[in-house]
Amino acid sequence: MSEDSRDADSSDADADDLTHTTDQGEVQMVDIGDKPDSDRRAVAAGEIRLQPATVEAIRADEVGKGDVLATARVGAIQAVKHTWETIPMCHQIPITNVDTDFSLGEDRVELAVAVGTTGKTGCEMEALEGVTTGLNVVWDMVKAIEKDDDGQYPATGIENVRVLAKEKHRS
After folding, report:
1. Binding site listing
2. Which residues form the Molybdopterin cofactor biosynthesis C (MoaC) domain (predicted)?
3. Are 61 and 67 in contact, with CB atoms under 8 Å apart?
4. Quick check: 7 and 168 in contact, CB under 8 A?
């Protein structure tokens, strides 16, 4: 592999060295033991589409289960800290910071999660887990008012989950 074909985060090793399979095709965790520690940060975002009346109930803190955004914030942070338990090949990493930022639109709640760590591997999976769990908590908190007469959720959907930024700086 030429230097030009590597991305900015793979400068520590060839892509062939960062595989989740053995030569026999068996799944394995990547060995990061020889990588130097770096300060790392990742930001992920997503949104949950809701009925406008549901968003207004969240804004007015009138959802029967309690404070939707406060509960979702706790869920997002818990998910970040436990990512290694739910994503099979993720390493357990020291989380140094988690920031959550909720934004209420007319028919949606947007969530951005920023995660910081100092270690040998990135934290984008932790940021993604924070977003998806935080949005799932919103859904759980509002599902009684989102259901239609048949018990379905035609106006509800989690969408546009993505990594917005990934940074690495040598410690």
Report:
1. 89-91, 125-126
2. 29-168
3. yes
4. no
pTM: 0.83
Domain count along the chain: 1
* Residue 9 known to be catalytic: no
Report the amino acid identity of residue 36: P
> Could you tell me if residue 12 is inside a domain?
no
Backbone phi, psi, residue 55, to 5°: -60, -40
Single out the catalytic residue among 107, 140, 149, 150: 140
Res. 33: pLDDT tops 80: no
| Residues tagged in the binding site annotation for substrate | 89-91, 125-126
Segment 82-86 long-range contacts (CB within 8 Å, at least 24 positions apart): 82/129, 83/125, 83/126, 83/129, 86/129
CATH code for position 160? 3.30.70.640
